[in-house]
Amino acid sequence: MPQQATTGLPAYQALADHHLQARTWQMRDLFSAPGNRFAAFSVEAAGLLLDYSKNRIDATTMRLLAQLLREAGVEARRDAMFGGQRINDTEQRAVLHTALRAPRGRPLVVDGQDVNAEVHAVLDRVCAFAGRVRSGNWTGRSGKPVTDIVNIGIGGSDLGPEMVCKALRGFADPRLRLHFVANVDGHDLDAVLSRLQADSTLFVIASKTFTTRETMMNAQSARAWFLRQGGREDELARHFVAVSTNSAAVRAFGIDTDNMFPFWDWVGGRYSVWSAIGLPVALAVGPERFREFLAGAHAMDEHFRSTPLERNMPAILAALGIWYRNFFGSASLSIAPYHQDLSQFAAYLQQLEMESNGKRVRADGSDVDLATCPVVWGDVGTNGQHAYFQLLHQGTDLIPVDFIAALRPSHALPGHHEALLANCFAQAEAFMLGKTAEEVREEMRAQNLPEDRIAALLPHRTFPGNRPSNMILMDALTPASLGALIALYEHKVFVQGVAWGVNSFDQWGVELGKVLASTLEREIGGEPRPQAHDASTSALIERARQALRT
Length: 550
Ligand code: F6P
Prior knowledge:
Blueprint: H1 10-22, H2 27-32, H3 37-40, E1 42-45, E2 48-51, H4 59-72, H5 74-82, E3 109-110, E4 113-114, H6 115-135, E5 148-152, H7 159-167, E6 177-181, H8 186-193, E7 201-206, H9 213-228, E8 240-244, H10 247-253, E9 260-262, H11 279-285, H12 287-306, H13 313-327, E10 332-338, H14 345-357, E11 375-378, H15 389-394, E12 401-408, H16 416-433, H17 437-446, H18 451-461, E13 469-476, H19 479-500, H20 511-524, H21 535-549
Parallel strand pairs: 5-6, 5-7, 7-8, 8-9, 10-11, 10-12, 12-13
Antiparallel strand pairs: 1-2, 2-13, 3-4
The protein binds 6-O-phosphono-beta-D-fructofuranose (F6P).
Subcellular location: Cytoplasm
GO molecular function: isomerase activity
Family: Belongs to the GPI family.
């Protein structure tokens, strides 16, 4: 059955009309109007506070946006996802990352299997293994405990565990050093291996498919390195474990399937940090903290599943994104975590959002009728303030910002956290307020600048303001609050995917480059070139062949 076009929904039309007025609103005026905007436009769930009052919205905007989500079928689709239906249409798969963090004893039968029981059986194995490594009970070939863990994986098999390990480094066992190798560029693996002792190193080969070229090449090179360092084939099992859905390929690689931690095809790569792909997290922070991380995400799942869209944090975040993307034409979204330990969070969200919703056809194969996922980017505050915030304040594009901060630090350095939070809140306030020409003129007159100088500087020193932002606050960055934060964005992405009519759970767009690269790799390696390329690609191949031959 053809899908209903999003722009044809009654609420979409109503929003388009409403936008004709809303686009002229000034947030300064909205804040001066009677009533408490913070109370009206903030929501708390799973230990997170979302203050969305600094947006170009009023109560009607939010009512219409919730109506749009309802008309697009978000609630039914949400229930279908939690219920284990095959909502990933193109791959004919269920989408059950939420089941990975559901408490034990909540049966969910999919294809005749109790997913909950399977999930907890693997989770128990992951936790037991992490416990053995952390206690020194799991030893390497010469009886030494593990000191270094190298996760070899890419995309979802890298970004999630790496981001979370960085974010929770305050909870990590300092005796274990975690390394992440993703890139097929040998400089990545080489830099890590050069610092390691084979006898005390554990490699985690993480790949859902166990066919990804980058990961397989890095894994083979790591294996060869281990053997060159004096390791024997029959000792590989103590130094290599795998996380995968493909036991045949794991066996073929030479890893004992007793040391393989499985997951399932209903876990998308970018949604897999909750599965055995999170093994490096369990190794770093320990089984208990890993379970707290899962519990934090589950708390957000419960909120998302049971709260009306009007008070539903992921739905609100999604709705605001749609408001700016589709009605104001914002082509990008900036993520500004004011927490150094969230330094990888924007990179993680890039895959989550852009691989999920960077699509131009709907589930029924027809073209979408509106813009979909914006470009997602960002860096930690305050660093970004001294790099690209200029453009956010005074550039020509309207770029919404998500600020993320923890009220309490996990260090004891006096004054730093006050300064950090002051900057975070100040930026959000500055985006909203801006600085009018009148205010700038007064300021310069107070500095006794001559009138001709004031006139020349005035346009440069004026800030348009009226730039929207969200503020996501947590008490402290803990396993539970991080779990909730990631789940918040996962569900936001889900809601937007439904509203835009795309399948958020496939990623066909990455295939073409993979296929072309495998041909080119052979050609650069010296194989005759059976295939004609365009003039540019042929010349580049020739350059590479010559350089690598000499
Ligand atoms: O880049 C495409 C992709 O399939 C991602 O979705 C995935 O996270 C990544 O490659 C790695 O895949 P795998 O875990 O199968 O190695």
